[in-house]
Amino acid sequence: MKHFLHDTDLSVEDITQIFDQAALLKSSRTSSQPPVLKNQTWGLIFYKNSTRTRISFEVGINELSGNAIFLDNNSIQINRGESIQDTAQVLSRYLHGLIIRTHEHEIIETFAKNASIPVVNALTNFLHPCQTYTDVFTILEQLGKGSLASLSDLEGKKVVFFGDTACNMANSWILIAKLFKINLVLCGPEDFRPKEKIISFLDNQNMDSGITFCSDPKAAAENADVLYTDVWVSMGDEAEARNRINIMQPYSVTPALLKLAKPSAIFMHCMPTHPGMEVTQDVLDSPQAILYDQAENRLHVQKAILAHLAEVNRK
Q1: Measured distance CA(35)–CA(9) in Å, rounded
Q2: Distances from the Cα of 125 to the Cαs of 101, 276, 305, in angstroms?
Q3: Distance between terminal CA atoms of the chain?
Q4: At what angle do helices 12-27 and 291-314 cross, to 10 degrees?
């Protein structure tokens, strides 16, 4: 059974096909969409609230002629102590796929181990692969000025991730950068360097675990192609909010940082944003900010991922 839990679960060839299909799905959305999920029902189990992730998956499943059932963890028996193992096996008898957004990455790993249907990672505290696939797809659109550039065009592009470089988005960017030979620079406070878990994961994948970390935001931003940031206080970290905000303040993406990047540089953020914290309103209002393109492309890329999983698991 083919699952999508990590950015590296699919080959470069698979990703190329997914991006090509995402571009086709995007361009033909108003005319026709392939009924690749016809007569299928996919479940969405969300332990964490969501706007973009939930809506893009539900709409995407419907547009591919499937049915979506949303389940928060309070509406199923897991909340009352039923095991993940039993839940995964029972849902496998009802559904054709599971999309899970949760806290501990081990939860989704356990679902996948016990399910006989494909499981998709819609976010864990370790990785967010649907977002990074979308980010790369969006960068390729920008490089191709509307049409997709070749994946090889990503090689050597400088992407700088500011803020909490130990978060799930930074971890996924580390993996995707290794796949496509992107020059990723992680820029944040020393106490928020990438953790041992992502380094061990790279080693287990036989990938170079060398990570470029810089604590100087001005040096990091110089000649960048992409400036990227995420929230400083993720769900589950609220108790640390005040301390995190104080420590992270020097890593806010400002117009001054954007000016140090290439004139063609773009600013990206997976949203939701907190203007005045990880990014200033001036940057968000800049034509270099492409957040809404990212947000829209979640729909198209995730549809292509679901279509790919449905096809390979039918074989």
Answers
A1: 25
A2: 9, 24, 21
A3: 10
A4: 120
How high is the pLDDT of residue 146? 86
Q: How far apart are CA 267 and CA 289, in angstroms?
A: 5
Q: What was the pLDDT predicted at 236?
A: 62
| pLDDT on residue 247 | 94
> What percent of the chain is predicted at pLDDT more than 70?
98
Helix spans in 64-195 (H):
84-94, 105-114, 129-143, 168-180
Place of tokens 């059932």: 69
How would you class 271 by CB atoms within 10 Å of its CB: exposed for 0-12, middle for 13-18, buried for 19 or more? middle
Amino acid letter, 258: L
pLDDT at 305: 98
| CA separation, residue 290 to residues 10, 109, 184, 219, 252 (Å) | 26, 32, 19, 23, 17
Name the amino acid, one letter, at 218: K
Amino acid of residue 54: R
Q: What is the DSSP string of 170-219?
A: HHHHHHHHHHHT-EEEEES-GGGSPPHHHHHHHHHTT------EES-HHH
d(Cα 54, Cα 40) in Å, to the nearest integer?
Answer: 18
Residues shown for the chain: 315
Residue 208's contacts (CB-CB under 8 Å, 6 or more residues apart) are 178, 202
pLDDT tens readout for residues 179-221: 999 999 999 999 999 999 999 999 999 999 999 999 999 999 9
The number of angstroms, rounded, from the C-alpha of 298 to the middle of its chain's C-alpha atoms is 9
